[in-house]
Design a protein that fits this description.
This protein has 497 residues and is mostly beta strands. It has 2 domains: 1-95, no CATH class; 100-191 and 257-490, Porin (Beta Barrel). It has helices at residues 3-19, 79-87, 215-226, 232-240, 341-344, and strands at 25-35, 38-51, 54-58, 60-65, 68-69, 90-95, 102-107, 136-143, 146-152, 163-172, 175-184, 258-268, 273-283, 285-292, 294-302, 305-316, 319-328, 346-349, 352-355, 363-377, 381-396, 401-417, 425-437, 450-460, 463-475, 483-496. The strands form 3 sheets. The protein has a 20-stranded antiparallel β-barrel. β8 (136-143) and β9 (146-152) form a beta hairpin. The two termini are 27 Å apart. The model is unreliable at 1-23 and 292-297 (pLDDT under 50).
């Protein structure tokens, strides 16, 4: 009986959106999605409703398979659960445009840059959507001569991956100053926790049962299965002397934060050309590496900083172009919070939990350039590409020291074809990113590698078959040093009402 009121809700949303003044459209879809390793059928209604400067996009959905409904996304058992359930159905809430005196986008954040991008550049909170639904906020406002920018990556989490703020003000004609602060209050909060019991799946021997987590239950079954007749006291003695297979304590777990501050100056040379300079500082500590017969983790060292002494943005006909000279110092990377951040914020390797911050020891002093271009080519396709080429020092794991003459490159690109030029194609777009590697054109996967595409084929009027694919990479625990793909595929049939 619980499904009846939900289906009524679906119908009401569809009717309201269809009758709304100035509606931009309502789509529905039928498809599949993978949640916690299980495949579910998906039924959703996605109305998009503009009301003046206000835009509202909803994503109201049901998941079900042969075992029944997935009710975790419709949980009203407590105030907190009800809040998550309701806010989870808002895909976006938008006011105004980025150049207005007040603009905000709440919900899905497809691309956010803070200031000139030295810390946060092209961040997206939708890389794992719909398996992971985040509700973020990007706000930009101009008040009494001051500019304010704010980003919050996920209101559904008490420890979002990004919480940042920037203030700016004109200090001279055409010259402005900006100061930014960004933080991830606990990188470990990025570890998957399928059953929501505050024990990450990596530590949880019962990742799909919120009532169980203690591995002593797991080992008790094995112990008594092998050693029949042994007493509970003998098991407890054996278990206590086994160094504790699961010593994770969520109440005593130490947070692992990382933060950054940045300062930037911008000068409007003309209506089409803007010059800027910026510096960024990462705030945190990581283990110091020493080379005494072997690599030892013995002490803590602070993170580093980077500088862009000169950068420029300009519009050359149909091309928006950006170029900057970069200088990075030990334990710093540019655009720390990027499109891949939610994916590689924290991961699990053969050595245990690894945060993105902990890998900054790999980068020494590096100098080079970064260039980015966005263009529309003869109304056939739009292309956005960025490329970084920096030379200098990187950590040599064998020698246990920084070596010179190393390359640190980044490549990111997005291409979208104009679907009106190809019969029966409703959407065709793809993207690729790989950051801080010797050569991104070798296409050797790392934790920073993300690629995917969306293809839509029109079956009939108002009906389109959508195929969405995302591929990220995680450490292969069976083969240390290698990475294995994590593929997310979503197939759905969309209906336009």
């Amino acid at each position: 009986m619980r499904i009846i009121p939900l289906l009524l809700v679906f119908s009401l949303f569809a009717q309201d959106a269809a009758n709304a003044p100035g509606k931009s459209g309502t789509t529905g879809s039928i498809g599949t999605v993978t949640l916690n390793g299980q495949i579910y059928n998906q039924l959703s209604i996605r109305p998009e409703i503009p009301i003046g400067k206000l835009g509202l996009g909803l994503d109201v959905y049901l998941y079900f398979n042969d075992k029944g409904m997935y009710w975790d996304s419709w949980d009203f058992s407590s105030g907190g659960s009800a809040y998550k359930t309701i806010i989870d159905k808002i895909y976006y809430l938008r006011w105004g445009q980025p150049d207005d005196n007040l603009y905000f986008m709440a919900g899905a954040l497809p691309s956010v840059t803070i200031g000139q991008g030295i810390l946060v550049n092209n961040y997206a909170n939708i890389m794992e959507y719909p398996q992971v639904r985040q509700v973020g906020l990007n706000l930009q406002a101009k008040v009494a001569g001051f500019g304010i920018e704010l980003i919050h990556s996920n209101f559904k989490s008490g420890t979002p991956g990004i919480l940042g703020i920037r203030g700016s003000r004109s200090i001279l004609p055409k010259l402005s100053l900006g100061v930014s602060f960004v933080t991830d209050m606990d990188q470990l909060a990025g570890l998957p926790d399928s059953d929501g019991d505050n024990y990450p799946d990596y530590y949880d021997f019962y990742p799909d049962d919120s009532e169980k987590y203690d591995d002593s239950l797991y080992w008790r079954d094995i112990y008594f299965g092998i050693a029949e007749g042994d007493t509970e006291l003998e098991f407890e003695t054996w278990y206590e002397n086994s160094d504790g297979y699961n010593n994770y304590d969520p109440e005593g777990a130490k947070n692992d934060p990382v933060s950054g501050v940045a300062i930037d100056f911008t000068y409007s040379l003309s209506e089409k050309v803007t010059l800027y300079s910026q510096a960024g500082f990462l705030l945190g500590e990581i283990d110091t590496l020493t080379n005494e017969n072997s690599i030892n983790y013995t002490d803590k060292t602070k993170l580093g900083w980077g500088l862009v002494p000169i950068g420029a943005r300009t519009k050359l006909g149909p091309i928006n172009f950006l170029a900057e000279y970069r200088m990075g110092f030990e334990r710093f990377v540019f655009n720390y919070w990027d499109r891949a951040y939610d994916v590689n914020r924290v991961s699990v390797s053969a050595d245990g939990v690894v945060t993105r911050e902990s890998q900054l020891y790999l980068y020494g002093k590096l100098n080079g350039v970064y260039a980015q271009a966005e263009m529309s080519v003869m109304n056939f396709f739009t292309l956005s590409s960025g490329y970084q080429n920096m030379q200098g020092e990187k950590w040599d794991e064998i020698l246990g020291e920084y070596t010179k003459g190393e390359s640190n490159q980044t490549f990111l690109s997005t291409i979208a074809i104009n679907p009106s030029l190809i019969p029966k194609v409703g959407k065709a777009e793809a993207f690729y990113q790989q950051s801080n590697v010797p050569n991104p054109f070798d296409f050797t996967p790392t934790a920073s590698t993300i690629w995917g595409y969306n293809v839509g084929v029109e079956i009939s009027s108002g009906v389109m078959l959508m195929y969405k694919a995302r591929t990220t990479y995680i450490t292969d625990l069976d083969t240390p040093g290698n990475y294995k793909p994590v593929e997310s595929i979503q197939i759905e049939t969309q209906f336009i009402f």
